[in-house]
């Protein structure tokens, strides 16, 4: 009985070790992938919005800035 329990524990340990190794390899692949991304996308990965949403926000801010500049020129 004790031998079967010991064998079962060893089997579970080896399965956990294999899973741990697989996760380490996947983590390494993710690090390599992130390092290969362009700087814009690496920056966007830190913000919990999609690239399209961020591009729309940036475009809106640029348009707002241009409107303010034009209004400032009209008053002079």
Outline the structure in words.
It contains three helices and no strands. It is mainly α and 76 residues long. Keywords: Membrane, Transmembrane, Transmembrane helix.
Topology:
Elements: H1 2-36, H2 39-45, H3 51-74
Highlighted features:
mainly alpha, 76 residues, 3 helices, single chain
Summary?
This protein is 87% helix and 0% strand. It has 3 helices and no strands.
Give a short account of the largest sheet: none
Rounded radius of gyration (Å): 27 Å
Low-pLDDT residue intervals, each spanning 5 or more residues: none
Separation of termini?
A: 94 Å
* H and E string: HHH
- Class from secondary-structure proportions: mainly alpha
Average of pLDDT: 88
% residues in beta strands: under 5%
The count of helical stretches stands at 3
Oligomer: single chain
DSSP, total strands: 0
Helical fraction equals over 70%
Globular, elongated, flat, extended or rod-shaped: what is the shape? Answer: rod-shaped
């Amino acid at each position: 009985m004790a031998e079967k329990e010991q064998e079962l524990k060893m089997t579970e340990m080896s399965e956990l070790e294999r899973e741990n190794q697989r996760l380490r390899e996947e983590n390494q692949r993710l690090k390599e992938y992130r390092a290969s991304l362009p700087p814009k996308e690496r920056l966007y990965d830190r913000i919990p919005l999609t690239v399209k949403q961020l591009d729309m926000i940036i475009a809106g801010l640029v348009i707002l800035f241009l409107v303010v500049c034009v209004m400032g020129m009209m008053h002079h």
